[in-house]
């Protein structure tokens, strides 16, 4: 399974960041898998942002839920991330990943496949 992130590398403050993850070698509707967006700001750890399940159900991190939208296009085997009202604090490497649900933590915390990541910088 391969995941490839794509989208603009530079976004202006207050705008909406939009990224697409294209999946090959496996279907995003395969049972029991969850397809996540995670990010890593400079000098910080990984942060789970949200996920879309094989069923199409969507889950968001409570800290980002008000600004985040995740969707999918099963015909293209892609899922997307939109993050609105971005600030420089949203500057990070953004990854898409596949993994099972962690019932203890309440979100997917481990990933068997992850994209290489894409740098997104928020700056005017």
Q: If you average the pLDDT, what whole number results?
A: 96
Give the ordered list of helices and strands. EEEEEEEEEEE
Helix content: under 10%
Uncertain stretches of 5 or more adjacent residues: none
Residue share in β-strands: over 45%
Described by strand count, sense and barrel closure, the largest sheet is:
7 strands, mixed
Round the Cα radius of gyration to an integer and report it: 13 Å
Which key phrases capture this entry?
0% helix, seven-stranded mixed β-sheet, 124 residues, four-stranded antiparallel β-sheet, mainly beta, 11 strands
Write up what this structure looks like.
With 124 residues, the chain is an all-beta fold. The chain has strands at 2-6, 10-11, 17-24, 34-40, 47-53, 58-60, 68-73, 78-83, 92-99, 113-114, 118-122. The strands form two sheets. Strands 2, 4, 5, 6, 9, 10 and 11 form a seven-stranded mixed β-sheet that branches. A four-stranded antiparallel β-sheet has the order 1-3-8-7, with no helix packed on it. A hairpin with a 4-residue loop joins strand 5 (47-53) and strand 6 (58-60).
Short structural summary:
The protein is mainly beta.
């Amino acid at each position: 399974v391969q995941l490839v992130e794509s989208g603009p590398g530079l976004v202006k403050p207050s705008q909406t960041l939009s990224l697409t993850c294209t999946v090959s070698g496996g279907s995003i509707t395969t049972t029991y898998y969850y397809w996540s967006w995670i990010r890593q700001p400079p000098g910080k750890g990984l942060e789970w942002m949200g996920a879309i399940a094989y069923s199409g159900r969507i889950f968001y991190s409570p800290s980002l839920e008000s600004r985040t939208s995740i969707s999918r296009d099963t015909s293209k085997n892609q899922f997307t991330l939109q993050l609105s009202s971005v600030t420089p604090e949203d500057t990070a490497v953004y990854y898409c990943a596949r993994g099972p649900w962690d019932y203890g933590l309440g979100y997917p915390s481990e990933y068997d496949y992850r994209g290489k990541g894409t740098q997104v910088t928020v700056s005017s």
